[in-house]
TrEMBL record:
SUPFAM superfamilies: P-loop containing nucleoside triphosphate hydrolases. It comes from Amphilophus citrinellus. It holds the Pfam family IIGP. Signal peptide: none annotated. One of its GO terms (cellular component) is membrane. The lineage of its organism: Eukaryota, Metazoa, Chordata, Craniata, Vertebrata. InterPro entries: G_IRG_dom, Immunity-related_GTPase-like, IRG, P-loop_NTPase. Gene3D superfamilies: P-loop containing nucleotide triphosphate hydrolases. The keyword Transmembrane does not apply. GO terms for molecular function: GTP binding; hydrolase activity. This is Immunity related GTPase cinema. Residues 46-227 form the IRG-type G domain.
Length: 404
């Protein structure tokens, strides 16, 4: 697991970031660094607006909290179990990504507005997609709303909530209980109702907000990933809770794809040479990258605290499985230097052949190449460490053995 994964240099081109190649060809390193800085800043500000609607009591707030990795009892939590009386729209930002907003929209039935007026009132244009939640079969109102959303050329997904309740009830009442059989029946029922109402091949997902890793939530995640425009995918991915190994690996791949830009940026700035490292690297860029990894994997202190309360595992026990010196720490230049110094001279930081292979692609001058390769290898190493920690924490939170 500690092997550093290198990208195939043919998988990307400097053209991906307009202006960088041109700047480097003109030997305008400051210009290239500026373009990269711009990209790195912009990628953190991509807005994602998710509209969650359904009748009061359907499980909207609980779903929003689970998605954000926030415990229902948390003070940042959307209030649950309170009966709505007004047309109140509340937004809940993701605790790590304030540009990812979850909107708790009142059920269309509670508002008495026709679907088109309802959508105008909630300002439907701003939403990337809608989730329509019901804890029973979907109703005429849900159908009408979905049809109107479709007319507005927006995407919508049906979530049938509280599936854990159904499963438990069936377990108790049926002698020859089969999980697949029960789930299949519930889904069929939902789809039938929606099709009868006139929705063609509705997308229905069976979800328990108390156990997002079970039932259809992982499938909802994949569907959203497929259907979102490319530039929004990472925003959704990074704000997803670590519901399975696949998500952790996808986050890792997405971070890995960004390392080339950090490395060109670092080489272009070619900060202060560090004597024992013998090359100049830009430590502030490294701090930014590693902070991104830590937060994206939910390994910063506040994320771990939230996980501790949603999973019901003491904070200290989660921290006990961490092996990297970076997790649960504030990432600073000092910490990065400390960890780097530990690896200097080891093969982990040597500019291996693999790393050098794509230096020509960027047209980097020789003087910059060493810095590029060092940053590339260092960030790949840090990313691997944190991804491994994320897997261990994930297993610990589920009560599995973290070392297998
Ligand atoms: P809202 O009015 O649509 O926001 O619904 P809430 O999120 O407040 O949920 C209403 C009630 O259903 C609360 O008591 C929740 O604890 C419960 N609930 C919500 N989601 C689930 C779920 O997935 N499983 C179970 N068992 N209960 C749930």
């Amino acid at each position: 697991a500690n092997k550093i994964k290198m990208e195939n240099p043919l998988d990307f081109y400097p053209e991906e970031l307009p202006g960088v190649k041109e700047a480097l060809e003109k030997n305008d390193q400051a210009g290239a660094a500026e373009k990269i800085q711009e990209y790195l800043e912009k990628k953190d500000k991509i807005p994602l607006n998710i509209g969650i609607t359904g009748e009061s009591g359907a499980g909207k707030s609980t779903f929003i909290n689970a998605f954000r990795g926030v415990d229902n009892r948390d003070e940042q939590a959307a209030p649950t179990g309170i009966v709505e009386t007004t047309m109140e729209i509340t937004q809940y930002p993701h605790p790590n990504y304030p540009n990812v907003l979850f909107w708790d929209l009142p059920g269309i039935g509670t508002t008495n507005f026709p679907a088109d007026e309802y959508l105008k009132l909630v300002e439907f244009e701003k939403f990337d997609f809608f989730v329509i939640i019901s804890d029973t079969r979907f109703r005429e109102n849900d159908v009408k709303l979905a049809q109107e959303i479709q007319k507005m050329e927006k995407k919508f997904y049906f979530v049938r909530s509280k599936i854990d309740n159904d499963v438990n009830a069936e377990k108790r009442s049926q002698r020859d209980f089969s999980l697949e059989g029960s789930l299949g029946k519930i889904k069929e029922n939902c789809i039938e109702g929606l099709e009868t109402g006139g929705i063609k091949s509705p997308k229905v997902f069976l979800v328990s907000s108390f156990d997002l890793h079970l039932y259809d939530f992982p499938c909802l995640q994949k569907t959203l990933e497929k259907e979102l425009p490319a530039h929004k995918r990472d925003a959704l991915l990074f704000s997803m809770p670590n519901i399975n190994m696949e998500i952790i690996n996808k986050k890792k791949e997405a971070f890995q794809a960004q390392i080339k830009w950090y490395s060109v940026g670092s080489a272009a700035v070619a900060g202060v040479p560090i004597p024992w490292l013998s090359v100049g690297v830009d430590l502030t860029l490294m701090v930014k990258a590693v902070t991104d990894y830590e937060v994206g994997f939910g390994l910063n202190e506040s994320s771990l605290e939230r996980l501790s309360s949603t999973a019901g595992v003491p904070y200290d026990e989660l921290c006990a499985v961490l092996q990297s010196p970076l997790a649960a720490e504030k990432i600073t230049t000092d910490l990065i230097l400390k960890v780097l110094s530990h690896f200097t001279g080891t093969t982990a930081l040597m500019a291996a052949e693999e790393g050098s292979r794509f230096i020509p692609i960027f047209g980097l001058p020789v003087a910059m190449s060493l810095s590029f390769a060092t940053t590339y290898r260092a960030l790949s190493l840090f990313l691997n460490m944190l991804a491994d920690d994320a897997q261990r924490v994930f297993k610990k939170a589920l009560g599995l053995n973290p070392s297998v």
